[in-house]
Amino acid sequence: METPEIVLDADQRHAAEQLAAIAERVGRRWRRPRGLYLYGGPGRGKTMLMNRFFASVSSNRKRRYHFHAFFAQLNAGIHEYGSIDASVDALLGDADLICFDEFHVHDSGDARLVARLLDTLFARRVTLVVTSNYPPQDLLPNPLMHGMFVPTIERILEHLDVVAVDGPQDYRTLGGRHTGFAAGHYVVGACPVSGAVDLPVAHRRLHARALENGELTVDFAELCGIPVSAADFLGLTREVRRWVVCTVPPMGTVPPDWVMRFVNLVDVLYDADLELSIFADVPLAELGGAIERVPDLYRTLSRLAELREPANLESR
Predict the structure, then answer these.
(1) Of 261, 310, 312, 260, which is closest to residue 283 (Cα–Cα)?
(2) Residue 114: partners with Cβ closer than 8 Å, 6 or more residues away
(3) For 151-161, how does the pLDDT look when each residue is reduced to its tens digit (9 = 90+)?
(4) According to the model, what pLDDT value does residue 291 have?
(5) Beta strands 35-39 and 160-164: pairing type?
(6) What is the pTM of this model?
(7) What pLDDT was estimated at residue 5?
(8) Phi-psi region of 153 (alpha: psi -120 to 50; beta: other; left: phi over 0)
(9) How many Å apart are CA 161 and CA 219, to the nearest integer?
(10) Which of 29, 109, 210, 224 is buried most, with the most CB atoms less than 10 Å from its CB?
(11) Measuring CA to CA, which residue among 238, 242, 236 is closest to residue 202?
């Protein structure tokens, strides 16, 4: 049975043309192609375009990564080998094309490392193609920290062409169905799941309510009250594809490090487009209250606003 032809929208066609031009020139010694930065909201086809492009490049000197996963490996390599150059060598070897899916910068510490990574890749004349939910100027959006990343944004614009893939259709919702992050819901009330199960995370035991068929149900305090990182959450996504977080309190009532872990969790699940459902003590409009202490929380509240409310839930 033949696979039906994919009909691209206007933004996708323009991006596909840009990618095709790069594919023809990857690996050339002279006049190497400029890289490409594709940005747009979830479900607009960025990853699909990158996958088709990557498959079309006839070279064994190409690498493709989800940026969260690559960044975790890069950090591990720096600790193991002692420098970012050595870590890049171990991960990328002699690659002349690197593709990063879901590129982002949210944390000032990560921003410094991303800046060094990009400088290393640009110095090596590696062709870089990335997808992101953010245009370059919106990377590291925290207004208190954004200025420090402006020189790196200028370097991105110097080396990469920027193309919006942000058409009107969220392809995850075709046919009335919601998928990925958008399939989750935000409910004010008690979580209907009870039970007890432990699973390992970051050399600790996470006490959850349930883990079954790739769905984790866990209380906010158990998940965000222990010292885990975004990389730890990313590690859990290899097994957990649907997340249910219960008894989520107003953020102003818990310590800032708990709030930051919640921010990291939502970032990981949003960028990986994995389903998240929240059972909260208060409506979303009342969930904030800690933005002055944790400015990145404003991004989390915006993302949670994409979740469906009970009146809009489909039968599950």
Answers:
(1) 310
(2) 71, 105, 152
(3) 999 999 999 99
(4) 76
(5) parallel
(6) 0.74
(7) 58
(8) alpha
(9) 43
(10) 224
(11) 236
- Show Cβ contacts of residue 223 under 8 Å, excluding neighbours closer than 6 positions: 206, 208, 245, 261, 265
Q: Tell the burial category of 1 from Cβ atoms under 10 Å away from its Cβ (0-12, 13-18, 19+).
A: exposed
CA distance 93 to 99: 14
Tokens representing 218?
Answer: 């866990």
Q: How far apart are CA 210 and CA 46, in angstroms?
A: 33
Which residue, among 56, 95, 72, has the nearest Cα to 271 in the 3D structure? 72
- Cα 90 to its chain centre, rounded Å, is 23
Torsion sign, CA atoms 117, 119, 124, 125? positive
What is the rounded distance in angstroms from the CA atom of residue 26 to the CA atom of residue 32? 7
Distance CA 147, CA 20 (A): 34
Q: Which helix (H) or strand (E) holds 298?
A: helix 297-304
| Entry field: residues in the chain | 316
Q: Which two tokens stand for residue 227?
A: 């010292």
> What's the rounded mean pLDDT across residues 222-233?
90
- CA 204 to CA 199: how far, in whole Å? 8
Residue 123 has pLDDT above 90, yes or no: yes
Give CA–CA dist 122/190, Å, rounded.
51
| Cα distance between residue 57 and residue 36, in whole Å | 15
Residue 202 makes CB contacts below 8 A (sequence gap 6+) with: 226, 227, 228, 229, 232
Tokens of 107: 């944390």
Q: Are 232 and 208 in contact (CB under 8 A)?
A: no
Q: What is the pLDDT of residue 315?
A: 39
Over residues 16-61, the pLDDT tens digits come to 999 999 999 887 777 789 999 999 987 788 989 999 999 999 889 9
Question: In angstroms, rounded to a whole number, what is the distance separating the alpha carbons of residues 258 and 251?
Answer: 9
Report how far residue 42's alpha carbon sits from residue 181's, in angstroms, rounded to the nearest whole number.
9
Q: Are 271 and 101 in contact (CB under 8 A)?
A: no
